Amino acid sequence: MNIKKYTLDKTLLLKFQGALMGTFTGDALGMPFEGLSAGKIARGFGRIEDMVEARLGAGTYTDDTEMMIGLAEILAEHGHVQPQALAGRLVYNFNGDRGYGGGSLKVLRALKEGVPWDQAPKAAFAEGSMGNGAAMRIAPVGVLNHHDLEQLEKEAEISAKVTHTHPLGVEGAKLQALAVGLAAKEDSKERVDSARFLEELKIYTKETSFNNALNCADRLLARYHDPETIANELGNEVTALRSVPASIYCFLKFNGDFKKSVSEAVSLGGDTDTIGAMTGALAGAHLGVNAIPAEWLDALENGEKGRDYVMELGRRLYKIWEQ
Ligand code: R7I
Ligand code: MG
Ligand code: MG
After folding, report:
1. How many domains does the chain have?
2. DSSP secondary-structure letter at 159?
3. Which of 194, 189, 181 is nearest to 250 (CA)?
4. Which residue has its alpha carbon closest to ligand 1 atom 23?
5. Using one digit for the tens of pLDDT, what is the confidence trace for 227-285?
6. For a pocket test of ligand 1, which of 130, 137, 159 has the largest count of ligand atoms closer than 8 A to its C-beta?
7. The whole model's pTM is what?
8. Which helix (H) or strand (E) holds 293?
9. Residue ranges around ligand 1 (CB below 6 Å)
């Protein structure tokens, strides 16, 4: 193996780990501020740059990371999304203290009671959920399939449909997976050309409402806007439509700087853990795990399925990709 190949592969391993650990870090950083408005965060806390105490303790993760771990485990074991196995793993890993969405709680309960995976999502809403629960966990699908975007879309869709079948819930998950895949393909030493990145996303994004939101993000990126304005324009809510484009914006606005991107995501308020997690996934896929501030990584919980375990999951996914 020549030196150049080794260097490239090493970079890619760090990107796989960056996408997973970026999800974890953003989730943990945002978790204490869930539900607060952008204005309240700005006035009460200023810029969010530290893991603060809340719920299960500073540096702990929520449902976003717990579900991401389940999805990464299934990919590491099967090499692809096996929906029945994914459904079983989401149920097995479930910890009710980690703040699951109401619809996802109902779906997981139905799965546990033996409802088939392709029926269970209707337990949440008639058409299935349009929440961001499928998008927030999708980073492993994005990095593992970054070399084949058609395959990435298929894998994203099937992984989403285990819990979220509403077209907007599925589309949001596909968009976030694509953005993670494209971010992984970018040179970690260069800034991403935002206009080009958004154009590429729009080629794949069929849903008009998401395309409109990406156009809006493009316009907003042209100059500075405060977090409150971004939250009003792009959203900070628990639906996929009102959180995935906002996360892509935060990644691109401060691209090249993991800390600033994720800090911006949390400052939008609202669904802070999830917008933090999705922005962290994008910045981590672009820059690699070494771009995550050491003090943030050090603060993350490290129990049975904690920091070391997620790092190892990133390595296992990378090994699958290499094969
Ligand atoms: O999508 P989901 O797993 O929620 C994820 C969020 C993240 O912020 C996590 O951090 C966690 O806090 O929860 O859970 P769902 O309950 O399926 O979707 C989230 C919310 O979106 C729901 O509780 C509803 O408020 C809303 N929602 C809908 N409302 C009306 N009609 C989702 N789908 C619908 C719908 O079809
Ligand atoms: Mg959460
Ligand atoms: Mg959330």
Report:
1. 1
2. H
3. 194
4. 102
5. 999 999 999 999 999 999 999 999 999 999 999 999 999 999 999 999 999 999 999 99
6. 130
7. 0.97
8. none
9. 62-64, 99-104, 124-125, 127, 129-133, 136, 166, 238-239, 271, 273-274
- Which domain range does residue 283 map to? 3-322
**Paired tokens of 84:** 């029945």
* Closest protein CA for atom 17 of ligand 1: 103
Name the token pair of 140: 């492993």
Q: Looking at residue 279, which CATH number applies to its domain? A: 1.10.4080.10
Distance 214 CA to ligand 2 centre (A): 24
Pocket test for ligand 1, best of 238, 244, 279 (most atoms within 8 A of CB): 238
- The dihedral over CA atoms of 143, 82, 132, 110, expressed in degrees to the nearest 10, equals -160
